Structures are given as structure tokens and as C-alpha cells.
Amino acid sequence: xxxxxxxxxxxxxxxxxxxxxxxxxxxxxxxxxxxxxxxxxxxxxxxxxxxxxxxxxxxxxxxxxxxxxxxxxxxxxxxxxxxxxxxxxxxxxxxxxxxxxxxxxxxxxxxxxxxxxxxxxxxxxxxxxxxxxxxxxxxxxxxxxxxxxxxxxxxxxxxxxxxxxxxxxxxxxxxxxxxxxxxxxxxxxxxxxxxxxxxxxxxxxxxxxxxxxxxxxxxxxxxxxxxxxxxxxxxxxxxxxxxxxxxxxxxxxxxxxxxxxxxxxxxxxxxxxxxxxxxxxxxxxxxxxxxxxxxxxxxxxxxxxxxxxxxxxxxxxxxxxxxxxxxxxxxxxxxxxxxxxxxxxxxxxxxxxxxxxxxxxxxxxxxxxxxxxxxxxxxxxxxxxxxxxxxxxxxxxxxxxxx
Length: 403
What we know:
By secondary structure, the protein is mostly helical. It has helices at residues 3-19, 21-27, 33-39, 44-72, 75-94, 98-126, 129-158, 163-184, 199-210, 213-243, 248-272, 278-301, 306-318, 320-333, 339-362, 371-391.
């Protein structure tokens, strides 16, 4: 392996680990929620708030961490964030009540948000054009595998210890990433490229990004289609185990198949980038998502059975492997000098639309029918396609990139 190739692989592993903060902290403790409710003498609804608290913390934290990384470089805010994540994970592990656990989860999310948002910004610092899109496709390995492995890992940990052990493992993960980041991830934003972190300057930066029609189009295409994934994550367990009577083991296999499909399409996208324009690849992914989710809705409405439901469901999830890398790369392409803030808005849209809008909607069907879940997924996919078609049209001053 050449030195350049080895360096790229090292960056991919480190930045991939940082992007895994979110899915690991969200999904790893899901199998333990019933035991947590009993141990903390709390209601199921109160424990569900630990999920909502983390989603809100991730959104708010990215809005802060992104501009800070534009002002002070990537390393310092990143290292502080990882330290906060590790310390908050300790607080989660020893929390004596649901209320304190919720508070610790907010702090944990604030730390995790630095890893997620700065990882994307660092990719923009280090790569551009085709190379950036290919690197984001490589990160889809983590995006697809982390949600699959996290619940499985959490379940295995419960065989040996209590739910507190899961947060102890998250603490260890944070400490490991802190050491690796401190010694193996160089600063990617030179001093001359940094921007002031004054509140007025940060607000102007965000206002400028929100006023950039093309950026907003790509960001909404990314966030709305990611909301379809959130809908699936939130609702599929109830639908597939309730309406279609899958066992937990069978459901885990379906969930794993969706993640594997996302990974495969993400790697295919990395191969196609450079051979076809990125906008064409993004449009292909959006069309695949809309068409497959529409077939999913038809199959659910006609009550055609599980055999007709699973192929379009898995295709819908897999389409994100082509949508996310290209939408993210295109959104960040024209903002090299405020990549942290741009990355923050991308992340906020994903977590707010997905976590605070899609997740509650996913429970409408109550697990008795796949129609509500399929309709919501198709609706978000269509809105993402429309956002791309209407808003992300390049202006005369900003022609379509060649790649």
C-alpha cells in the first residue's frame, strides 16, 4: 500500500469512528430500555425521552461546534468534544434516575456532535471534487454498519452485565477515539483559512448559507431522504414484528440486510463517481428511493405480504448509499471557507427532520399495518427529490461541476 493510500485509509478509519458516535449512542442501548425502566423505577415514555434528548443535543451541538471549528481549527474543538462525550458516558453509566440520565444524554450528545460535524468538515478540508465524493462513499461503510452492529453489540453486552455496562463501553470507545485522534489526526484547517467565531459573524455565516438556494436544495435532499431512514428505524420493528409476526432474530436479519444494501450501494457510488456527473448520480439515487418507496406503499396498501414488501423496502434504504455521499459532497463543494458551519446545517437538518419529525410520525400505524410507515417514507423521498429539482438548480454564476 502506498503512503498516500495508507494515509487515506487511516483518515477514513478515524473520521468513520467519529461519525459512528451518533448511531452507537442511539442504537446500542435500545435492547436495554425495558431493563432500564425497571432498574430506574421509571416509565417507558420517560426512557424514550433519553432518545429525544440525544437528538436535540446533537442538533444544537452541531450548530455550535461547526463554527468553532472554522475559527479555532478542527483539532481543538474535536478533542474537547470527544472528552465531553467520554465524561458524559460515565455520567450515563452511574445515573441514579431517569431525569439525571436524560440530562447526561444531552451532554453526551453535545460531545458527540463535535465528532460528527467536524469529521464532515475535515473531509472538505482534505478533499475536493471527485475525491471528496469518493471519501464520503467510503464513510458509508460506517454509516451502514454502525446501526446494524450497535443493537447486536448492546444485546451481547447485556448477556454479561447490566445496561450500565453499555455506557461503560461507550466511555471506552470515546477514550480510544480521543487517543487515536490526538496522535494520528493532524490539523486539517490552516490558520490563514480560519474565520472569527463572533456571534454576529456566525449568524451572518448561517444566514448566508440559508440564503444559498443551491446549498439549501442539496441539504434538504439529504435531510429529507435521511428522514425516510429514521422512519424505517423507528417504525420497522413494530411493523415487521407486529403486523408480519417476524421474530426478533428474523427482524435483525432484515435490518442487517438493509444496512448491507446501503453499504454496497455506497461503495458502488464511489466507483461510479468520476465516471458520471455527481448530480446525475444524486438524481439516480433520489429516483431509486422514490420509485422503490412508491412500490413499497402499493405493496403495503394491497396487503401483498412480506415477500412483496421486503424488496422495495430494502431498495429504499439502499438508495441512501448513493444519495448521502453525493448530496453532502455537492452541498459542501462551494463552501470551503466555512465548511464547519455548512456541515453543521447539514447535520441539524438530518437530526431535526429525522429525529423530531419522522420518528413521531412513524408511530402513527401502531404496528398493525405497514401503510403509514411506507407512506411517510415515500413522502419524504418525494420531498427530497422536489427539493433537489427545484432548489438545487445551478445558477448561471455557478455551473454544474464536471464531476
